[in-house]
């Protein structure tokens, strides 16, 4: 809490600067931390944000009343924020009004009439324009020359000390709530453990015989109730059923209930994005103690409301109807008619003191323990049924006895009885024999019970049998002995690291006992702490960090289950060997109990794995295996394995350098690129398609007579006119116009300075034929021209685009510009945004001797010294980089908003879709001679879309920090190939059986592919897969060959 302040001073400088400075100094001398704008607004920051933050993190809001502060819009904003935050506001009366003389001093040129106008507005006095909230609060009087400053100051200090701890907690939990809200209400920013319990206790504080110093805000209540909900596996106390018409009423009820610390489920706050709507509603009802139904004509006719009621009644839930308007009794379902309604027809919910709200809260507090247990058992029973009666979810020990006792009570009730599934679930649990072996023993501090309970429940859902003290220790049992038996019977010892568990002597004893038994210890970090304080046995274990900033529970839980599931055969073999060794020792080490044949081979393999694994073998196990061991398999030496890896790496380096691996590597690259997730559309663009339907309608309408160009000049003129009137950032035309324009189009092309045209370079095809280029529109200046050439990966004419040209050697006759259309548009757009452009082209040497750069963003150049390409046949000429496609709906064509040309000509495109956007116009009609379609990893894409993708890539990288495709230098890639060659060689050297070798090689290949895919998808890094894969395979094959020769010899 060191970052918080005791008070925030709000004042008007003209009247109260000296007084505010004095007050601040005196408060600081009284050992108070005060936010004062003269000291607490750093240079170069948004002062309003700094002020808002100061108010949020201050316990008290001191408002110095004076005419200037009363009439200041800035002080008004501060008061409004303090009111929204429910801060304790303390008004200090300093100046009641100013005289004409004072006004004249501040306005030397002011005239008497101006003073009269000033007074007429009430600006001379503190009272006419006073904020209503300030007027309602008792003031502390600090009028100069009238009030005793020292006496008033003493009263102010006494006011600060009153309910100081409550007010400080208000500030602390408000800051937590604001942070949670700013972080999109992510669960990792909720309150947990002791902090959550403190927040619950604070929210329940009531001031019986005095007014509270400040009230919790709705945000406080939302944070605390959501934290409670999170601690209880998102289970709630109240499900609100309503129709959309009653949404305002529902929101009032929800806020009132949360103020009373009830957790509430609504379809507006508790349905996760992407979840099935109906299934989420059913789960919400199942996981709630009560269903509160807002009964109205609309809700009685709502299909969803009736579905919710039906589900709640089928589960024997307690349903509480709130009658919020008069309805026909015949409309009310039969089940509801027998229930008591709480009447809200003549009174809206006004807070906790209204009679109808009190009635609702009293009902919710009745038999809370019964309904909570009803809910918990129902949820477990439903999980058991939905998971095909997963036996790991069945009740055991303490939980089972509680459920059995609850069932006896429940059968005596007349309402809200257990459903048959609950009875069957408890009955089936009673039939299960006590399990001798368990998967996981959970060791934790009670301070972390919420997290431990959540882990336990989730592990059971994953078919893990767990030992959890709240479920596994029967009442009256020897606590310590039960714990030790639990550790002995568990395959894994799971320890939850937190300051409380590390300092607990009970947890320390459990850890030491598990270590003595050589149990596999798995640790999870729940709360941050110094590693120096951790038990030495735990410090050696890599923990799974559940408290890391941004850590998602399910993501980290997946890592935990992978750890628990790692080497299940190894753990089972450990137990099996221990039992056999114990039996051998008990029988005076009789040779007849030693391992032989396949059993020995399997045990030897297990022992080899145990070198770097936990749990380690015990001394007894090692002695048992030594007695059983036969002659080991002969193997080649490790230096031969290393040499084989080096030879294979050298061969692969040569093959890659000669380009033999390039086709396969590009195919693998395409497949990995297709795994990339969708991204939001780039709203900086508007794509205007010249599509077949639009062309056909234009021809049929006869609006534009046929012209010389690809579309009539008159149509293009109207198109540019309609676009220009809405002020686009730039207009790019992606089709050739190498002939003079007619009529008004000529003047429009000359005057449209944000219009970008294209030209095309001459080139030589794969048959050696010279293909002439195309010139740009003669009316357009050369600086408004970029070349439209796209780089093609298929020498046979397959037109496959993975790269993009940014610069190339100009064609003086046809296309005398070094810059691509994408570069011209991106450069002009980014320069307008204040991002300077650094050209890689040296004007003297005509070479690209430095990286291309926009602001601080470097555009990497393909040189053939890394990545999948080799500079064969001059394929990397010019300045090229990789193209990272943006997709939406798995389609790169949808990377930006699109309209057709007819919509623009008919003025059906709104100004907002055009203003300040980059507009690209191009053909998407495959039949048109100007249309160009290219193959990509995602399918065929029109040329204009490819240009848009390339521009979007540069803009997103520069302005949005979207990563570009990068690759390692050749040296790193060579080390990478050697590393995987070594993996393949060691795998084939390490395993003796072909089955195990095949599995290990497959696993290594999968890991290689996963690493390459994850780096490409998540980090945009192109790490070579095919060279490393071939190195792995050939190195492994060479080791197998040499090993086979050795064994035969």
UniProtKB/TrEMBL annotation:
<keyword id="KW-1133">Transmembrane helix</keyword>
<feature type="domain" description="TIR">
    <location>
        <begin position="436"/>
        <end position="568"/>
    </location>
</feature>
<keyword id="KW-0472">Membrane</keyword>
<dbReference type="GO" id="GO:0007165">
    <property type="term" value="P:signal transduction"/>
</dbReference>
<dbReference type="InterPro" id="IPR000157">
    <property type="entry name" value="TIR_dom"/>
</dbReference>
<keyword id="KW-0812">Transmembrane</keyword>
<keyword id="KW-0418">Kinase</keyword>
<feature type="transmembrane region" description="Helical">
    <location>
        <begin position="1022"/>
        <end position="1043"/>
    </location>
</feature>
<feature type="transmembrane region" description="Helical">
    <location>
        <begin position="995"/>
        <end position="1016"/>
    </location>
</feature>
<feature type="domain" description="TIR">
    <location>
        <begin position="3"/>
        <end position="122"/>
    </location>
</feature>
<dbReference type="Pfam" id="PF13676">
    <property type="entry name" value="TIR_2"/>
</dbReference>
<feature type="domain" description="TIR">
    <location>
        <begin position="234"/>
        <end position="361"/>
    </location>
</feature>
<protein>
    <submittedName>
        <fullName>Histidine kinase</fullName>
    </submittedName>
</protein>
<dbReference type="InterPro" id="IPR007890">
    <property type="entry name" value="CHASE2"/>
</dbReference>
<dbReference type="GO" id="GO:0016301">
    <property type="term" value="F:kinase activity"/>
</dbReference>
<dbReference type="Pfam" id="PF05226">
    <property type="entry name" value="CHASE2"/>
</dbReference>
<feature type="transmembrane region" description="Helical">
    <location>
        <begin position="966"/>
        <end position="988"/>
    </location>
</feature>
<dbReference type="InterPro" id="IPR035897">
    <property type="entry name" value="Toll_tir_struct_dom_sf"/>
</dbReference>
<keyword id="KW-0808">Transferase</keyword>
């Amino acid at each position: 809490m060191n970052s918080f302040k005791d008070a925030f001073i709000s004042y008007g400088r003209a009247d109260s600067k000296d007084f505010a400075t004095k007050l601040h100094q005196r408060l600081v001398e009284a050992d108070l931390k005060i936010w004062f704008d003269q000291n607490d607004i750093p240079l170069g920051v948004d002062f309003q944000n700094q002020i808002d933050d100061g108010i949020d993190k201050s316990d008290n809001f001191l408002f110095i009343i004076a005419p200037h502060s009363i009439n200041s819009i800035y002080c008004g904003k501060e008061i409004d924020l303090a009111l929204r935050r429910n801060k304790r506001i303390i008004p200090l009366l300093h100046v009641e009004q100013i005289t004409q003389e004072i006004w004249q001093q501040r306005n030397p040129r002011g005239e008497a009439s101006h003073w009269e106008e000033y007074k007429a507005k009430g600006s001379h006095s503190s009272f006419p324009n006073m904020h209503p909230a300030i007027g309602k609060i008792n003031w502390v009087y600090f009028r100069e020359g009238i009030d005793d400053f020292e006496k008033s100051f003493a009263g102010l200090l006494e006011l600060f000390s009153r309910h100081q701890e409550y007010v400080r907690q208000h500030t602390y939990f408000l800051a937590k709530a604001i942070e949670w809200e700013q972080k999109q209400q992510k669960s990792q920013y909720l309150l947990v453990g002791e902090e959550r319990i403190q927040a619950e206790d604070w929210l329940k504080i009531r001031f019986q015989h005095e007014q509270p110093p400040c009230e919790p805000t709705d945000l406080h209540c939302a944070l605390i109730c959501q934290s409670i909900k999170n601690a209880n596996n998102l289970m709630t106390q109240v499900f609100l059923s309503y129709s959309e018409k009653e949404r305002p009423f529902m929101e009032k009820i929800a806020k009132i209930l949360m103020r009373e610390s009830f957790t509430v489920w609504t379809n507006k706050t508790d349905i996760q994005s992407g979840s099935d709507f109906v299934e989420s509603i059913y789960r919400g009802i199942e996981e709630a103690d009560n269903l509160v139904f807002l009964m109205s004509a609309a809700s009685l006719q709502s299909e969803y409301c009736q579905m919710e009621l039906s589900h709640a009644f089928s589960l024997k839930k307690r349903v509480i109807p709130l009658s919020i308007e008069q309805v026909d009794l015949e409309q009310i379902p039969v089940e509801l008619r027998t229930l008591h309604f709480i009447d809200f027809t003549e009174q809206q919910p006004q807070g906790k003191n209204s009679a109808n709200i009190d009635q609702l809260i009293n009902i919710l507090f009745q038999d809370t323990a019964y309904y909570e247990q009803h809910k918990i058992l129902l949820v477990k029973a439903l999980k058991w049924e939905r998971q095909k009666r997963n036996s790991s979810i069945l009740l055991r020990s303490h939980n089972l006895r509680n459920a059995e006792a609850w069932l006896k009570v429940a059968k005596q009730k007349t309402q809200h009885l257990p459903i048959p599934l609950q009875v069957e679930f408890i009955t089936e649990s009673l039939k299960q024999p006590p399990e001798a072996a368990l998967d996981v023993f959970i060791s934790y501090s009670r301070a972390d019970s919420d997290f431990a309970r959540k882990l336990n429940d989730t592990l059971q859902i994953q078919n893990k049998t767990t030992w959890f003290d709240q479920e596994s220790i029967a009442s009256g049992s020897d606590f310590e002995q039960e714990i030790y038996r639990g550790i002995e019977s568990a395959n894994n010892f799971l320890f939850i690291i937190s300051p409380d568990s590390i300092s607990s002597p009970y947890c320390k004893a459990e850890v030491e006992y598990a270590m003595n038994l050589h149990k596999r210890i798995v640790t999870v970090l729940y709360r941050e702490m110094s590693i120096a304080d951790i038990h030495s046995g735990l410090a050696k274990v890599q923990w799974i960090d559940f408290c890391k900033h941004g850590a998602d529970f399910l993501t980290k839980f997946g890592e935990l289950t992978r750890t628990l599931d790692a080497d299940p055969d190894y753990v089972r073999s450990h137990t099996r060997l221990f039992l056999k060794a114990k039996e051998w020792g008990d029988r005076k080490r009789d040779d007849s109990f030693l391992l032989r044949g396949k059993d020995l081979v399997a045990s030897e393999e297990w022992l080899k794995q145990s070198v770097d694994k936990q749990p380690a073998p015990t001394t007894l196990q090692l002695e048992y295996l030594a007695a059983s061991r036969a002659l080991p398999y002969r193997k080649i030496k490790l230096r031969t394995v290393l040499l084989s890896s080096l030879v294979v790496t050298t061969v692969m380096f040569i093959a890659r350098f000669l380009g033999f691996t390039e086709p396969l590597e590009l195919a693998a690259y395409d497949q990995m690129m297709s795994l990339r997730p969708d991204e939001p559309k780039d709203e900086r663009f508007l794509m205007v398609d010249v599509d077949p339907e639009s062309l056909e309608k234009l021809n049929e309408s006869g609006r534009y007579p046929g012209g010389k160009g690809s579309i009539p000049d008159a149509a293009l003129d109207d198109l540019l006119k309609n676009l220009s009137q809405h002020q686009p950032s730039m207009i790019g035309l992606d089709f050739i116009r190498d002939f003079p324009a007619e009529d008004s189009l000529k003047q429009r092309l000359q005057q449209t300075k944000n219009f970008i045209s294209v030209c095309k370079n001459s080139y030589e095809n794969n048959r050696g034929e010279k293909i002439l280029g195309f010139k740009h529109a003669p009316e357009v200046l050369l600086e408004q021209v970029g070349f439209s050439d796209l780089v093609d990966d298929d020498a046979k004419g397959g037109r496959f685009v993975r790269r993009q040209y940014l610069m190339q050697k100009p064609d003086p006759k046809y296309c005398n510009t070094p810059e691509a259309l994408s570069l011209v548009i991106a450069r002009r757009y980014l320069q307008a945004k204040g991002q300077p452009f650094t050209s890689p082209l040296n004007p003297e040497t005509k070479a690209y001797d430095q990286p291309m750069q926009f602001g601080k963003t470097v555009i990497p150049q393909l040189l053939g010294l890394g990545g999948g390409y080799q500079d064969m046949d001059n394929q990397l000429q010019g300045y090229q980089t990789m193209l990272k496609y943006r997709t939406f709906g798995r389609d790169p064509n949808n990377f930006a908003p699109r309209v057709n040309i007819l919509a623009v000509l008919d003025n059906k495109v709104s100004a907002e879709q055009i203003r300040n956007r980059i507009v690209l116009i191009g053909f998407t009609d495959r039949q048109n001679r100007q249309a160009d379609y290219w193959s990509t990893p995602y399918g065929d894409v029109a040329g204009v879309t490819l240009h848009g993708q390339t521009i979007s890539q540069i803009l997103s990288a520069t302005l949005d920090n979207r990563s570009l495709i990068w690759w390692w230098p050749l040296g790193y890639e060579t080390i990478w190939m050697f590393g995987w060659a070594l993996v393949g060689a060691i795998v084939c050297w390490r395993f003796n059986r072909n089955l195990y070798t095949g599995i290990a090689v497959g696993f290594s290949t999968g890991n290689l592919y996963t690493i390459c895919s994850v780096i490409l998808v998540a980090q945009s890094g192109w790490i070579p897969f095919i060279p490393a894969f071939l190195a792995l395979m050939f190195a492994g094959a060479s080791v197998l060959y040499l090993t086979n020769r050795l064994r035969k010899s």
